[in-house]
Design goal:
It comes from Rhodococcus sacchari. This is Rod shape-determining protein. The chain folds into 2 domains: 151 residues, 2-Layer Sandwich (Nucleotidyltransferase, domain 5); 92 residues, 2-Layer Sandwich (Nucleotidyltransferase, domain 5), CATH 3.30.420. It is 38% helix and 29% strand. With 330 residues, the protein is an alpha+beta fold. The two termini are 28 Å apart. The radius of gyration is 20 Å and the shape is flat. The strands form 5 sheets. The protein has a 5-stranded mixed β-sheet, sandwiched between helices. A 5-stranded mixed β-sheet has the order 13-12-11-17-18, with helices on both faces. A hairpin with a 2-residue loop joins strand 7 and strand 8. The structure holds adenosine-5'-triphosphate.
């Protein structure tokens, strides 16, 4: 093992290693002491278990916002802790190499920030690959072939659509409305329609608890009565959840579908025959693929592993330097 494929997402960090598969898949979260942000006390699931339970001197931090690094120091602390958790140095004996993924719409400054953080966290020889390219590879698509592939990625902080062909990007659209906003919509719905206040985790559980594959028609959520402050249980119908998130999902798919305006006719015919690939956690939301099909007027195939295909593709890129160099300046 020489290195890792790393998808530093707004919601989740996923790391893959050649021959080992996914070696880490946890929330992108860390807990630090407010007075010393250069040391992570807990990361990932350990950190999320502590949210809303920490004493005031401890602070939870999301090191990635809207798909990109906001603060170099914090991101370096986080990535160092991730590498330490997976025993990167111990396994490899020297600084490991890495293929990191970036949003297709990242600016040169945002790409440079990620490279700098990767180096300072202990990686050597870092390759950057756009997320939709890595996701496509993780789903068995070759982005270097002379054929257009359309990839929709609905993550926690960003939703993107990218048309890939022959080692380049033909068209791209993104919006910062994504999974986190869907959670927020459920939270607001519960407050306004059921007069119950719930935390982000409960609202997210309600959203994730209604995946496309589930037959459940309702689920029970626990919150605090908005008037009395007492604990209260609410039965939430699946239909209510879908109604609550509909305006947000409609906004996402409408923005993304305008990407078709930029595609040349032959690229459109490639996409018509093959359909759209949907990746990212948001693609698992019940009704999402139908909404995408209606907005794009094209068939949609949801990835088999929407949450990990990007890291799987990044890991595969370690043996495909030609992909990394083709998209080096994308
Ligand atoms: N079954 C599900 N149904 C609906 N949404 C889901 C499901 N599973 C996960 N999600 C949502 O998917 C989002 C996380 O997806 P993903 O891990 O692809 O994002 P990310 O890569 O961390 O974010 P970004 O790409 O914006 O940086 C979260 O908002 C999460 O609530």
């Amino acid at each position: 093992m020489r290195g890792f494929g790393i998808d530093l997402g707004t919601a989740n960090t996923v790391v893959g290693a050649p021959d080992e598969g996914i070696v880490l898949n946890e929330p992108s979260l860390m807990i630090v002491r407010a007075a010393d942000r250069r040391r992570a006390l807990a990361i990932g699931r350990d950190a999320s278990d502590l949210v809303d339970r920490t004493p005031p001197e401890l602070t939870p931090i999301h090191p990635i916002r809207d798909g990109v690094i906001v603060d170099l120091e914090t991101a370096k602390t986080y990535l160092s802790a991730v590498l330490e958790r997976i025993g990167a140095r111990r396994h490899i004996g020297l600084r490991p190499t890495g293929v990191l993924t970036v949003p297709a719409g990242a600016t040169p400054l945002e790409r440079r920030a990620l490279l700098e953080v990767g180096h300072e966290a202990g990686l050597r020889k870092i390759g950057l690959v756009p997320e939709p390219v890595a996701g496509a590879i993780g789903c068995g698509i070759d982005p270097l072939e002379p054929r257009t592939h359309l990839v929709v990625d609905i993550g926690g902080g960003t939703s993107e659509v990218t048309a890939l062909c022959y080692g380049g990007i033909l068209a791209h659209r993104s919006t910062r409305i994504a999974g986190d906003d869907l959670t927020e919509a459920i939270l607001s719905y519960l407050r306004s329609e059921h007069q119950v206040v719930v935390g982000e985790f409960t609202a997210e559980r309600a959203k994730v608890g209604t995946p496309a594959t589930s037959d459940e028609q309702s689920l029970v959520v626990e919150g605090r009565d908005a008037a009395t402050g007492r604990a209260r249980l609410v039965t939430l119908e699946t239909k209510e959840i879908m109604d609550a998130v509909r305006p947000t999902t409609a906004g996402i798919v409408q923005t993304l579908s305008t990407c078709l305006d930029d595609l040349p006719p032959r690229a459109i015919s490639d996409v018509m025959s093959e359909g759209i690939l949907a990746i990212g956690g948001g693609s698992m939301l019940r009704g999402m693929s139908q909404l995408l099909e209606e907005a794009f007027g094209l068939p949609v195939k949801t990835a088999e592993r929407p949450l990990t295909c990007v890291a799987e593709g990044a890991t595969a890129c370690m043996d495909r330097p030609e992909v990394v160099s083709a998209y080096a300046a994308a």
